[in-house]
Please model this.
Amino acid sequence: MASHPSRRHTPRQQALIALGAVHPHPQAVSDPLFRDSAFFDPNDLVQVKYEMLRSVQEGKYRVAQAAEVFGLSRPVFYVTRDLFDREGLAGLLPHKRGPKQPHKLNDEILAVLASAVHEQERMLSGEELALLLEQQCGIHAHPRSIIRRLLPYLRWQEKKHQ
Model:
């Protein structure tokens, strides 16, 4: 399956692509459930992971066998099982990788920058803000990143004080 939606994809395939839930190796899925079935789709990574877990739970396969039959690895099995135990079916959905929130430009840092903007009574340039951030907080951030995070914060502050 291609990685970009097109007219050739079914709505289900387009949804899988949009969610990032396409099995990277659907051809490696060899479990009989996924052969010639309108319901079981080897491209559906969430469905494949669920059936992999279920096959081990029901004693159909051992972990190593299940991972191989469903075209995944043993480490993926264990991570999937842990996520499913913690979050249920939602744990099988793809998760956003990387930091879940900005780690440098948090609310405390944005408050420092907003205070500087209010003191100057004008919007500072990204370069000015980056220099200020470096001098006052010892944090290096790209000027565009600072502006991109600071503007919504300033708007939120304005609304809060109205």
